[in-house]
């Protein structure tokens, strides 16, 4: 009886489960990942002949019809509101909107983009209930309340070419987010999830002569969205190409080409795994395989084999072939020797039935000795993570934009890209094959939104195994023939568990050669991986005896003004062979072009929250080395220098002896021209070209640079600049493009700087009355105010160089004897005064946990002066000295003591020497900067300097910025960060000038140590208060900062902060410089900058 009850209970449960499953939508059922969808296979286009195939241009094929273009479109907020029978050809949709395909419908104005980073936009924060996406308990501000699950219904008509009669016809959707149903002529064809790999359906039986009607219904959210939680805009729609292709009744459905290389790498055994399908034909077909060097014509083809194809059953036919190939050229990222392999399939009649083309490269991959080897050479990955992003199209990529990305990457000395975090557009892999990039090819698996529910992680939930495996298999199947793919990656931030073990096994059943990567579960991978490691942890990993190599899949978070210490990471990679390199996060800001609110004629790059999307992580997706529109930035140029392969070291610089090391793995340095120049205070005085050096990969050589000792100028500095440029045009850059450079100080004996003469300039005097001390010379006047303890005005001739309005000092007249009220901010006094503040960088803020938060809490942006002493003394007829002791206190109580001596000379030069003692007792251990801030009036726009440049630099991001003489404008000193922040700093500066167009202005000359400076039309507070560049109101004045020290940048927006050597600790610091009047009639700035005044 008990047994009967038990079985009745089991049967009841099964029936209830059946009912439950039957009631589930396909798009809320993790077990339904496709209906009637073809299995994954290599990506190809069938062509009509070999010449067409070699063009690699789909439109050249008679068996390809693009369905891109204008479709009819209906959009609703909720699935229940979607039209129910729109797929019926008799239903009139002429009144529907038009939409272009491919596109993301949010970018086209339907709904809004969401950006959340890790939180699912369709759940209540981390309160998740997979596979459901239609729950209704959300905070009132969530976008999900207004847009529960938008659905886009698409319709268009198409014709099938007459010459396709008797062939099988398939429809290909390159990418649809996130789930879709497909109908042809009113008949349901199938269903698909998995947004980043193709969905293909055999539509032959649904077609009719003449016009055919295609209908697609797309859901914004589905159970598949739980595996698509990537750190990116959440966008929807048909965003990749849609096309029809036709194949003969016997057809080469799939192929996988691999090569075993001989020990001398001159011959190969080509393995061909071929999969044929039979759709109802009889007779014997012939398959001819041809090998053609990329760019060669068909008459240069080499026949690989000729294979009779018969006995192909309805289940298909698998064939494994081995072919010996001699005289091969190897593929690597440095020398991407590429071939076309053509499969020419001939029908029993002898006519060509189809030709399929694929890229192929001869290369092998091996893991041994804790390293990864390509063609026998240990590879060090110098890479970046790249998200597919188009500022004008969202996820929609075009070839021109992809070309821009790969050209820039190659120019920046990168050899690796990680397709974070999903399979990219197929063209991207072809470009990587052709241009030479190693690819870490990632599957479309990220369930980061489950992070707070590790016990429920989808990677270890058996009901989700099918989806995990399918997404990985489809990624591998589509792209397995690309030589550029060096590792498969099973996903990103999706936990660990049995589903990744199953995915790993499935990948290895297809491809045994390539290693498998997955940062979240290194046990089920061939390499160990990690993100954002500290130097200490990297050192431990480098020393580890684990046989697996270690790959730093994300590091140097490049959000905003950063990253710092890329050099230190790369030194670790170079020191420990087990560390095989890494990929910076990330390549490009992911902004979308949007009209400026209230000013539709202007645009900006939008980030999270700008569309009213909630929840959001704001600008956390603006992490690129390059901007959304792919502009070259200072941080890119820094990385380019650190990543360069030609290492140049000093042997005896005075004798012109250097060591040149070729750290490329495959190419000779005869691909580059070496040139040099000797500079005096930043200006070239000698130069020459040595040309091409014969230094093989891995070798080094001593090289003599034939400069001669010049006649030394008093007080001058000399530098030797070395440059390697391309000797010939490359696909990614023209001849003459610089790929490596280095700079060395040439330490000639010092010729003492000449003294600045005071002869003929007359005497100076001062007037001390009430709060004001005025010092007058023959051509100048300088004013100090005792209330603030600093220079307030400076006039040279008839030109006001520093000008402070009285109200900036005295404010509103009041009874209190305290005349400097806390309503007056520091930037309103024009003269040099203490500045500890920088507009917090994204790294400083570090998601609300960083140093910048404590700086803001202590109100370092509001340093208010309290003068303890002010003394003025006539030292000589040509020298007056002002000594001040000022305590700067913020409204929050943070105190900084300054002791300053101003030595004013009769020629208008002011030597400024200040000892700054920050408060070290209140817990603040690190300051953003220690220096001065001042402002010059309108029209002082021209900037020149002798220091590190020409681009922005900081203490931990200075590599590649060479000491030189540079010119700019104040306007052009701006660096375009998505969120305004600290910017424009120049390091190791000897002198700089800011002048008007008449050549009159101020020259600032470093005294005993170099200074940092910036010159902008914004104060640090201006920058901090703005969330967007369009919110900045450009001041007429020029705001100048002069720093003795500046805290490093680090990468704390996601990762470690600045390293200890770049800390700016709360210790006493001396800042000293000369403030000099300048007139172009005085002579060359560099000559004046060398002069010293007693």
UniProtKB/TrEMBL annotation:
User: Which species is this UniProt entry from?
Assistant: Plebeiibacterium marinum
Q: Top-level EC class, please?
A: hydrolase
Q: How does it assemble?
A: Monomer.
Please give the catalytic activity noted in the UniProt record: Hydrolysis of terminal non-reducing beta-D-galactose residues in beta-D-galactosides
Kindly give the SUPFAM superfamilies that the UniProt entry links to this protein.
Answer: (Trans)glycosidases, beta-Galactosidase/glucuronidase domain, Galactose mutarotase-like, Galactose-binding domain-like
> Beta galactosidase small chain/ domain spans which residues?
774-1076
Does the keyword Cytoplasm belong to this entry?
Answer: no
Domain of life the protein comes from: Bacteria
From which lineage does this chain's organism come? Answer: Bacteria, Pseudomonadati, Bacteroidota, Bacteroidia, Marinilabiliales
- The entry's protein name is Beta-galactosidase
Gene Ontology BP term (one): lactose catabolic process
Would I find Ribonucleoprotein among this entry's keywords?
no
